[in-house]
Amino acid sequence: MSTPTVVLSGVHSGPNPSPGLGLARSLRSAWPRLRLEAVDYSPRSTGLSASEFDRVHVRPGWHTADLDALCAGLVSIVESAGAVFLPGLDLEAALLADRQPGHPALLLPPSAAFDAVVKPGETAASLLGLAVPEYRFAEGVEDGADFAVRHGWRVWVKGSRYEAVATNGRAELAAAIAGLRATWGGETLLQRHVDGAEESVVFAALDGELLGACAMRKTMVTAEGKTWAGSVDLLDPPSRARLVDLVRVTRWTGGGEVEIVRETDTGIPYLLEVNPRFPAWIHGATLAGVNLPARLVAAATGIPRQEREKAHSTGFVRVVEEIPAGPHAIGVVPTGQHGLSCDGELPGHRCADSPVPAPGGKHPSGMPVLSRRLALPRPRPRPVDLDHRRAADIADALLVDPYESPARVYFGGVLDRGLDRLAGVCRDVEDATGVPTRFAYSAKTNPDPRVLGAVLRRGALVEVISQAEARRCAEAGFPGDRVVLGGPAKWWRFDGGPVKFGAVFCDSVGDLRRTLALVAEGGVYADVLGLRLAPPGVPSRFGVDVTCPRAYRAVADALRGAPVGRLGLQFHHAASQIGLRAWLREFTAAITVAADLLTRADVRARCLDLGGGWPPGLGRAELGAQLVRATRAAVRELGSLDQVLFEPGKYLVEPAMAVFTTVLDVREGRHGRAAVVDASIAELPDWGSHPHPVLWRAPGAPWRRLPPGDESVFGRLCMEHDRPRAGLTLPDGIAEGDHLLFLDAGAYDASMSFRFGV
Ligand SMILES: *Cc1c(COP(=O)(O)O)cnc(C)c1O
Q1: pLDDT digits (tens, 9 = 90+) for 312-329
Q2: Where along the chain is the active site annotated (predicted)?
Q3: What distance in Å separates the CA atoms of residue 221 and residue 198, rounded to the nearest whole number?
């Protein structure tokens, strides 16, 4: 035999292609008369129609077949053709490594190599001298949210086998965890996003010996971040030496790819993942003169190549090409209609094991089904006991039993401890910076009189955004000099005064001019008058972006010679959204330009107001440290200050209220169970952006916390979207008449459902 036969699997060619077609092209350029056979698991795999293949095998989908029989069938295809096999699908390769270990015709890594590269890939990273981005495994949004907040919500949620979804907030995180678990089964991994350029290293090895490698820098990517064009280079000697180690230690056979991102700020290379097969862009390396698939097949079969490696270019681009459909592809029905669906399942099978359909045409090789079949069965999580303090807070709040339901429950103890913590933060900032520091509670976050009363008794200030809120605070007992007025609608229905405020912050240039006029007319008196600065680098509808030259000049003109006693600068953008690091970066950028502006206008800032949006999970030390950093940066730019304010809202009140509900019904659905409760989006309007932790209590039993899972709680309203919580495991014994308590409902859930005047 003068040329080998090669069987390739994974030949789909779509926006996120499998490598089969690229492998075929590379092998053909080494052996023009090579016989090539393609294997895939549904007729929807588009590469099956490619003219490169002499024969195609459409194998049964993963949902139908016995996995051992499928592996044996594949091996018999390879053996009867006297061929070698190159896998293009990670999971199929992992399965074959497990079920057919050491088969000489299967050019894939041994099982131990799969273990070494399993996400997040720490073993492989240490061999390769790469860092691993911070990560955490998460079953549900509760275990993942504080990790994500710490990284400004810029995290990736990765499926157990494939796929990574970028998230940017709590609701997206919850949906990504649920969606990836439903698609791939098993655990989901959260990983910090690393800003930087992506690179790949591709290699081939036989029995632990490296046959060749090269590096690729992505020069164009698709919306999903997949390579569309790249430039190919030699691997530098130190990286090559490390790769030799990885290949030797794992006794690697077959192709592989190491995906790396080099962080822009630090230059540190991080490992994203190691793929146990050639990448889809493999033919790009061949075009650059490094034909790794041919080197592998030649080394494995001993058959010399007919054509030499030749560099056509140092880079490659992808193109889209229409080709005639093969006979198997005729009659393939569009996804989502009749016949085979996109991930290779019959629609009728879907509700049994696939609650979430995969997006159109994304997985024609059926990898999600295989992934779910290979996932270890997970024990059903049980409700978790509460710590003593939580149990005591709830017992104090729910004195009357049976309670009125649904009802908002106020945890006075939680609020008091929060106020203690805030007083501690003020002392810490004062001690560290020497600047007197106080906080102004944001009344709009929860205007409950009990909250306002508790804040008043501590001697703290309130922050309001309308005249109505200001009146409400006055009625609650706040003197005018303990009220901070801000926001874009502060003069709505203003009666002309005269009124007095501790501080007034203007939200736009127009607002500044108008407020200065009101002060000049004597209608408004403010100890501190100032401007809210917009974050220059993140979109915000609030404040003035002084980095914009026109706004800069307008503010400087308005302030020059204005009747301002003490000038203040306010910066507020939710650190709970963008993360503490980005917050400090934005703050510093804004304050630096503002300092320059004030110098030109010949005025000095006296008061700094550091807004709200602090994540409720932050400890005293963390919040204090952040405020200290900001104050020091401000003093450096503005000179000495005589007051620092900050404006906690949800930081204080989110954990201080819950919504008590009664279970009306428990129903079985296609996708698991759901409990219907007597509360709804009327009591929990913020559920969409804030999945609440939920406690459960059967009659006479203690409260327990519901663990993550794939079940839901529905509300009482006849609205499809009245679903206050998904992603939970309901307890086995849950029944009509039991109670559920939605925790952390004291912030915007409270204010959005607040009835003023009642
Ligand atoms: C809303 C608001 C706050 C409080 O925000 P939270 O997200 O509740 O912490 C603080 N300051 C200003 C200016 C606000 O508009």
Answers
A1: 999 999 999 999 998 887
A2: 718
A3: 10
